[in-house]
């Protein structure tokens, strides 16, 4: 299976190694047709990208599009779920410019009064085994509400680090035309819901989640997951249909 795009890559704008241009050069070497720079939303603890940095990143991407016309360079974001009401940290500037809106559920977000119940529940569930069913239900509802509020292209690494009802999530993805990620770093969680996804007609996107230029377009683990779980090529958004 050939994959033509890597929509989820990080750079030194956040906590990754390498520049935007180095990621692009790696994507070209990997014969990709498209690459997305998807930095973390501003409320990611310690590594979130500020509004001003997103403006700088956008300007850099615009400039590099002229320099590398042979590849499509997308200005993406990996936003965070902030609370159980489905709010996310999507800056107005990014919202008006973003090519693909990715949503991740990360436990390490900047605490606030609205996020407190979500952060607390997940800490108690993960570390002490408390409120597990309740937390799982609320986590899932938060993601579903976000998908109904925003035009989200992709849910990143579903079920990684936080517990969600992946079957309910897959059904909601089908209703909102949101893809689920096969993450080449944290991908095997999808085995819990791939059958539901198949029956509901959910699409998948394979991503490297690269944190170093050398990882851009490195899909071997994702392709292995696809083969192991017998996911049809027609369900993979970024697959070459002619191969």
UniProtKB/TrEMBL annotation:
Top-level taxon of origin: Bacteria
Gene3D superfamilies listed in its UniProt record: Metal-dependent hydrolases (3.20.20.140)
GO CC terms: cytosol
Segments forming domain Polymerase/histidinol phosphatase N-terminal: 5-83
Transmembrane residue ranges: none
GO molecular function: phosphoric ester hydrolase activity; zinc ion binding
SUPFAM superfamilies linked: PHP domain-like
Pfam families: PHP (PF02811)
Official protein name in the record: PHP domain-containing protein
Species this chain originates from: Proteinivorax tanatarense
């Amino acid at each position: 299976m050939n994959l033509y795009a890597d929509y989820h890559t990080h750079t030194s704008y956040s906590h990754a190694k390498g520049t935007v241009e180095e990621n692009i050069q790696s994507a070209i070497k990997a014969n990709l047709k498209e690459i997305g720079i998807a930095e973390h939303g501003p409320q990611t603890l310690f590594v979130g990208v500020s509004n001003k940095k997103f403006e700088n990143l956008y300007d850099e991407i615009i400039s590099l599009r002229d320099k590398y016309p042979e590849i499509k360079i997308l200005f993406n974001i990996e936003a965070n779920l902030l609370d159980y009401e489905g709010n996310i940290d999507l800056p107005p500037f990014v919202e008006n410019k973003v090519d693909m809106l990715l949503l991740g559920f990360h436990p390490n977000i900047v605490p606030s009064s609205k996020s407190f119940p979500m952060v607390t529940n997940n800490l108690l569930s993960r570390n002490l085994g408390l409120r597990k069913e309740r937390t799982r239900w609320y986590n899932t509802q938060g993601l579903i509400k976000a998908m109904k509020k925003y035009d989200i292209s992709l849910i990143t690494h579903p079920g990684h680090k936080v517990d969600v009802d992946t079957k309910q999530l897959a059904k909601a993805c089908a209703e909102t035309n949101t893809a689920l990620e096969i993450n080449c770093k944290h991908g095997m969680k999808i085995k819990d819901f791939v059958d539901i996804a198949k029956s509901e007609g959910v699409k998948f996107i394979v991503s490297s989640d690269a944190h170093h230029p050398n990882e851009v377009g490195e899909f071997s683990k994702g392709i292995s997951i696809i083969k192991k779980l017998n996911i049809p090529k027609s369900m993979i958004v970024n697959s070459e249909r002619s191969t």
